[in-house]
Amino acid sequence: MNFNFSQTLVIVFVLMAAISSQAQKDKKPRPSLKASVAQTIGIDTDIVIDFSRPGVKGRKIWGDVVPFGLAPGNKYSKEQPFPWRGGANENTTISFSKDVVVNGNKLAAGKYSLHFIPSEKEWILIFNKNSALWGSYLYNKDEDALRITVNPVEAPFQEWLIYGFDNLAGNSTTAFLQWEELKVPFNISTAE
User: Is 24 a domain residue?
Assistant: First the structure.
């Protein structure tokens, strides 16, 4: 059987389509889906939080899935302890279009990774300049832009981790993380 160039090209395209079709069938959504929330405060200060939403799925979250203190080092963190990424998958990030004040501390406009060091009564919330990490494994304290202490509060059960904004007051808002039966609020206001 003698094939010409056109017939060969058709066969190649058919094979490529079949392979591509199979690859599409094998794709499944991640267990922790991506999400984003945004809020404008003041005249034009935009806040955007990008995160992935793990589920409780019957597990004990605080002090177990998310350990109190730093997580123990592992092969991904080069055996160095690290904070919690505040979600799943890639880093949770927060961006500000203009300078802001977070719990009374100035923070420059920009995009930051969010990390947490939880404990039973107080948490440390970290805004880190490296927003391109996968999780917190290679977190570097030297790249911190701001660390604040926040107090978690009891909240209604929340199966899927969420971030949101409460207490809107023109030039300010309270951002929060909520998951399982805890809510972790922090105040953000315009710097002007």
Answer: no
H or E, element range at 17: helix 5-26
Rounded CA-CA distance 88/50 in Å is 11
8 occurs within a structural domain: no
Distance CA 74, CA 53 (A): 23
- Judge whether 56 lies within some domain: yes
- Cβ atoms 103, 187 nearer than 8 A: yes
The domain tally of the chain equals 1
Neighbours of 152 (CB within 10 A): 21
Contacts 24+ apart (CB under 8 A), 15-20: none
Q: Can you give the residue range of the structural domain that contains 155?
A: 30-190
Tokens 């592992």, located at residue: 74
> Mean pLDDT in runs of 10 for the chain (192 residues)?
65 68 64 91 97 95 94 88 91 97 98 97 97 86 97 97 96 98 98 82
